[in-house]
Amino acid sequence: MSRARLNGIEIDYEVSGSGPPVLLTHGYSATRRMWDGQHRALGDAYQVISWSMRGHGQTESPAESSKYSADLTIGDMEALLRHLGVQRAVIGGLSLGGVASLGFYLAHPEVTRALVICDSGPGYRNAEARATWNQRAQERAAELEARGLDALSGRSREMREAMGEHRSAQGLAHAARGMLTQEGSRLIDGLPSIRVPTLIIVGDKDQPFLVPCEYMAKKIPGATRRISISRRRSTGSCATSSTVFRPASAASRRGASRAPAGCIRGTAPDSRSSGSGRALP
């Protein structure tokens, strides 16, 4: 565990292994600890960097709601890489972390070697659908303010395990309003502009993400979609619970010499992949 003061806040992060850098961003109300398995699996071939976003885990939770936004999250990712002396990295994330990773590419394509997007989506063009999503985020924030961290107790395993890691329920509430809510269609409109190797991973029982992940795989040039098959009952986030990226070398026509190129689950399931263009083997 390490700390760095970046962009005016103290960020909690971990670095392990050596090789091409991989920056992993967790989902909403989880922490960097959800990537502990990736540190173990990738450390012999990659420099794995995980971190906790504003309002999450042991990263600082600013009191002002204005200190939480998608743009500030992307800025924190860039500042952390710069702090570590990383010029280019594979950028990966799950759920909200996947959204942040897409946004990072659009803001810093020159820093992005490849993308790994897990159980995520690019947002909505439809204003009504976006408003419905944002209303749920507002309700999540209100629940955290009313119940504190107990509001996480009935959710996914990662969220339950993270209850003891978070500093502040109010920080999570601010993050829901400022980072989980969506504005405009910049991400979904930007998918065709992505020009790095991209792997889309989704759990077979993660119904809310199946269609968005299929859509991203079709819209991102050359992207590969891999479905992780569960051999046990889903907890609501199949890929969240035990996805592990398997290190692999992949020659890339776009200059990504090595990138996480597959996934396994703790139960060694089968998987199937689809996509157009070059697959990441």
Protein described:
This protein is of the alpha/beta class and 281 residues long. The protein has one domain (2-275): Rossmann fold (3-Layer(aba) Sandwich). Helices cover 34% and strands 20% of the residues. It is built from nine helices and eleven strands. The protein has helices at residues 36-42, 70-83, 96-107, 127-147, 157-162, 169-180, 186-190, 207-219, 238-242; strands spanning 2-6, 9-16, 21-25, 47-51, 89-94, 112-118, 198-203, 224-228, 244-245, 263-264, 271-275. The strands form two sheets. Strands 1-2-4-3-5-6-7-8-11 form a nine-stranded mixed β-sheet, with helices on both faces. Strand 7 (198-203), helix 8 and strand 8 form a beta-alpha-beta unit. The longest helix has 21 residues, at 127-147. The radius of gyration is 17 Å and the shape is globular. Mean pLDDT is 84; it is low at 233-281.
Number of DSSP helices?
9
Radius of gyration: 17 Å
Query: What's the name of the CATH homologous superfamily?
Result: Alpha/Beta hydrolase fold, catalytic domain
Uncertain segments are 233-281
Strand order in space, largest sheet: 1-2-4-3-5-6-7-8-11
Percent of residues in beta strands: 15-25%
Question: Span from first to last CA?
Answer: 32 Å
User: Which term fits the overall shape?
Assistant: globular
Q: What is the fold's blueprint, element by element?
A:
Elements: E1 2-6, E2 9-16, E3 21-25, H1 36-42, E4 47-51, H2 70-83, E5 89-94, H3 96-107, E6 112-118, H4 127-147, H5 157-162, H6 169-180, H7 186-190, E7 198-203, H8 207-219, E8 224-228, H9 238-242, E9 244-245, E10 263-264, E11 271-275
Parallel strand pairs: 3-4, 3-5, 5-6, 6-7, 7-8
Antiparallel strand pairs: 1-2, 2-4, 8-11, 9-10
Helix pairs in contact: 2-3, 4-6
